[in-house]
Amino acid sequence: MISKLPKWAADLTEKTGSIMFDMKILETVYISPDIKKIRFQGDISQMNFQIGYANIIRVSNTEFRNYTASYHNVRDRILDIIFHIHDNGVGSRYIDKLKPKDELRISIPRGKKMYNETIRQQFIFGDETSLGLACAILPILQKNNHQYQFYFELDDENQNVPELLGLENYTVFSKKNTFRNEQWISELPVVNTDEWDAANYILTGNAKSVQTFRKVLKGKSRSNISSQGYWLEGKKGL
């Protein structure tokens, strides 16, 4: 779905019962000052959750944003989403104000599948916007006995967030343009060894970092790569 529509079209989209569903907020918690987890409750029985899919939330009269579910339970009718509250964007402002008992509509998930269960080794890269995907895929990786590794580039104040979320087998890097540097990436252990040649690579988060990392992996003849830029400096509604 495009991120911006005329108000009449946005109204029509939000009212479409086959796409958007009523949800109520049960609880909110700030994992860090700019990482907010919200638990929603509603009928999610028609939602198909796949790694790489995202739900749409209307954040203004004319704008929508994509967010990845970090956990869902159809029986209990609950859905968790981890949000990155950053800068002063319309999405961040809207999410920051949400509180328990608020009601809104959330779309069915859609997107492209990124997880290939037939590949034993799984590598996941991202930033704050990728934490939901990481939380969603972790129990799947554990259940299917994968060898897995997470790499995160995070702001300094969020360095301990993966631990607080219960993630495992992760390495945290500071956001100092490291993942914009092809030479630096090429020297990382996961890249500079043939042990991970056949791994499934899932790259999300900052579009520039994703693009650079993907280019290095392609140069190393890594072929199982799924990538999706979630945001880019100066670009709204990516």
Report on the structure:
With 238 residues, this protein is of the alpha/beta class. The chain folds into two domains: 7-111, Translation factors (Elongation Factor Tu (Ef-tu), domain 3, Beta Barrel), CATH 2.40.30.10; 121-231, 3-Layer(aba) Sandwich (Rossmann fold), CATH 3.40.50. It contains six helices and 13 strands. It has a five-stranded antiparallel beta sheet. The protein has a five-stranded parallel beta sheet with strand order 11-10-9-12-13, sandwiched between helices. Strands 4-3-8 form a three-stranded antiparallel beta sheet, with no helix packed on it. Strand 3 (53-58) and strand 4 (64-67) form a beta hairpin. The longest helix is centred in the middle third of the chain and has 13 residues, at 131-143. It starts with 6 loop residues before the first helix and ends in a 7-residue tail after the last strand.
